[in-house]
Amino acid sequence: MKKYHCIFVVLLFVNSLVALAGTAPQLRIETKNSLLVFTVGSNGKLYQSYFGQKPSHPEDVELLQSTRHEAYIGAGMGDLFEPAIRMVHADGNPSLDLVYAGHKTERKGDDLSLTVITLKDPKYPVEVLLHFSAYFKDDVLKTWTEIKHQEKKAVTLSNYASSMLHFEASKYWLSQFDGDYMTEMRMKESLLTSGIKILDSKLGTRAHMYRAPAFFLSFNKPSDENTGELIAGTLAWSGNFQCSFEIDQQNSLRMINGMNPWASEYKLPAGKRFETPAFIFTYSNKGKGQASRNLHRWARKYEVPDGEQPRLTLLNNWEATHMDFNQDVLVELFDGAKQLGVDLFLLDDGWFGNKYPRDADKTALGDWQVDQKKLPAGLGHLIKAAGSRDLKFGIWLEPEMISPKSELYEQHPDWILKLPNREESYSRNQLVLDLINPKVQDFVFNTVNDLLQQNPGIAFIKWDCNRMLTNTYSPFLKENQGNLFIDYTKSLYAIMERLRKKHPHLPIMLCAGGGGRVDYGGLKYFTEFWPSDNTDGLERVFIQWGYLNFFPSLTVSSHVTSMGKQSLKFRTDVAMMGKLGYDIRVKNLSPEEIRFSVAAVKNYKRISEVIWFGDLYRLVSPYEESRAVLMYVNEDKNKAVLFSYLLNFRRKEYMGKVLLSGLEPDRKYKIKEINLLPDAVSTHPDEGKSYTGDYLMKVGLNLSAGKIVPLSSAVFELIAE
What are the E-state strand segments in 192-237? Predict the structure, then answer.
């Protein structure tokens, strides 16, 4: 009885405030340019009264007291649309009624404030805590939910939103990012209409393969790079997700983001805490470009490990050798890496397994011992040989997976996600380990940690995950199979937490058969990601363009390979827009190609800080013209790098001037074309000339002067005088 008395006192206090002041109490969460306002109604419930551009006058904020949209709605009561949360209590009651019970705000310096709003059910011992982190300078908000209860038995959760936000506009335009294996992050924009639009995934491990948990939502009209009011949002979750957009009969939009409740009725015991992943979003009234720059700056400072530190260029052996290599072949590749001038050699799949050697993709996953036939002198020899060439050494792993033909499978058939009374379901000839089992978590952690401790020269890991979850059943969970999809991802994060405590600054690439798992939940532990197994230069323009909407360039691994029919220069220029690497056999290049590539690596290392840490401006979209143009400008605005890619186009197509962005109007910038072929001299009419930033942003540059050549590219460096 005492716990309900406390809630009653809170409600009395709230109602007293309303009576005395004549206005409802407000909770304000703000960044430099945006404001989120909640109001406590006379009924004790919490309402979202406003989200958008911050009013200039404080007295105007006082007027934002709408109690139309309940902030976080429980199912089973009076609401007629999608709920934020649905709970079935221990006594079978499928309803949740949430009232405001207090809040607290903690400031962390001048940039970060943490707000926690507590909601309670007046009839049941249930608490829902709404968490908000406001990053003032970067205009980024992060929100997640915490659910707790003290009922006698477990409750069942079947909806558990990370966020519920409400909007009121005349129209809503959604830019989503879809694709498939080898066609990741294709951008599509559509007008939302009455009813519900859902972006979701049910794939489990490679959950983002078909749809990404990232979007732009524009209000009143479609936004472009520099104009329009919108939010950019993304869910920090590497598992099944759901983003829903529901327009009601009064044209209000209810947006809910979180883990996908599909096949995931979650049993939550008393005293246990259920925490959702974070939904990260930023508001912009200056177009999509500003929203992207907000997220990039925030991610480098707060989310990505060592996000403000330099990255390593590398040479990977996968497309050069696949699994067909030996010790001598690898050392020859080291020589090629040294010749290029990259920092690291990455040994990919095929280096492990003895009883069942990894000569194809049908064996040895789980048997993480060095193949004594391929590498008789072990990894130590390779690390030493790389070091003698001033190269660091990295290695590929797929620790979550197991091959049916492996010693681990023979020893632990109970460690596999597998339906009882069904045939095993394979994808890429492999199965998934039951990470929910603590013994399996220990095995995966020890596999990686022991490898690093026994070979302290390993300076990089590529962590792969080449299949989704199908025919899924956890022997460890027994009757609680509804917890599987959620607990699998949380178990992966638990392993990564342990590894990061032991190896906080180790660069680790996140790969899932390409870009099947790219989100800020994973990037809390990984320094970069592999966008796609499609490294064709033309396709990569679109793929990397898509990812750069939400993720900073130093996280986007971009490799020069032999895939595609474009010139080596085009493929190199495309790779340089992100984190440059190579996946190629250097000895197969011509002397001229080697000269060009050596010079390109030197160029990239010289300009990489502008690319990695500068502000990105997307100038011409490949979705709008037969070319793509983008540029990076450093914080001091005294250096910029401009990339121009001509794609496929029709005969006599005209390319107009390109207006640059992000420069200081009164400064003069000298234009210099870089990354030219050996002995080539720039023929660009503006080569060596200087213009004010104002001229470049208002008049622009003709980047396609002279004969227009399909699938050609140019890179320009701008230096303030």
Answer: 195-200, 211-219, 229-235
